[in-house]
Amino acid sequence: MANPYRELFKAPGSGSFVLAGMIARMPISMTGIGLITMLAQLQGGYGLAGAVAATFALATAFCAPQVSRLVDRFGQRRILPVAALIGGGALLMVLVCTRLQAPHWTLFVFAALAGCMPSMSAMVRARWTEIYRGQPQLQTAYALESVLDEVCFIVGPPLSVGLCVVVFPEAGPLAALLMLAIGVTAFVLQRNTEPAIHPHEEHHQGSIIRSSEIQLLMAAMVALGTIVGVIDVVSVAFAQHQGQPAAASIVLSVYAVGSCLAGLAFGALRSKVPLPRLFLYGGVATAITTLPLLLASNIFGLSMAVFVAGLFFAPTLIVAMALVEQIVPPAKLTEGLTWLVTGLSIGVAVGAASSGWLVDAFGAPSGFWVAIAAGLVILVSAIQSYRHFK
Fold this sequence. Notes:
Elements: H1 4-8, H2 14-43, H3 47-74, H4 76-99, H5 104-114, H6 120-132, H7 137-166, H8 171-188, H9 212-241, H10 247-268, H11 275-289, H12 299-310, H13 313-327, H14 333-362, H15 368-389
Helix pairs in contact: 2-3, 2-6, 2-7, 2-8, 3-4, 3-5, 3-14, 4-5, 4-8, 6-7, 6-14, 7-8, 7-10, 7-13, 9-10, 9-13, 9-14, 9-15, 10-12, 10-13, 11-13, 11-15, 13-14
């Protein structure tokens, strides 16, 4: 039986843009935690560090779709270097201002400008779409990208923290900056695989987020990200409560492994089930698999619960991305994909903040109620999407 992932890379230039895109997307996972670690070491507290990192995260959520909208209009070759220069230059200024002990407001200004970094995962998916539009290989390509996103967020944070602690405080964000410069440069130089600029029709003017279909998918992605944020925070608190703080890394790894395995398996399938129905199944399964989180009483039980919950993260994301490719006009594709990635990022922040409050007030297990609520939102969004798309 042929390996569907090996078949993907028969397309000329595909391996090169995937590698460049992987390098260029690493800064998104490294920068926030790197800023927190750096500022905590140099400023002596987490209040300022968290606020600056939150500014960067919110700015990224706002700016990334706007950058992608410009990419759809003018092309990757023209927009990505400018966005990377603004975002990377601003990140460099955060490091300089920190080292020079500049006023705190300068950190917030440059952290906000650093949010102009492009959503490289959306750029890579746009290239895959250009190659395999309307073909079954596109689902496999989206599955591969979802797994690479997972790998990015597994490897990036510990790498950034380790560099900040072991080398020097600014080393983590600086490494992210270098990866952004190298990755984006290598990516845009590969012109043969760059998506064509599609003409914008008059009735497609304005942001794609105004589309009710995208809003439904966006709501589901925010909820999906919320579950991830909850698991991140509550796993750490739960492990500390059990007297095994180091076990939190095991729990988080199990969740990522479950998602990666399911994503790879799903991408290898050639299902004839319509995408709206697959999304409905994913929504139902995601909602159901949040329930066992409440039953966990020890590290092993929590690991099993998050493993099962992780099994439906990547497949649901893959189907959502495939739906965007079907419902969004080609001239808006990159923006549409970016809104979904942005929704995940917003959800992670919401899940971490809300579950953290519950954990502080009522104990570690209470944070999982946020995941239950998020599962319900995904279920409702999936049902509404099915009714809308079918």
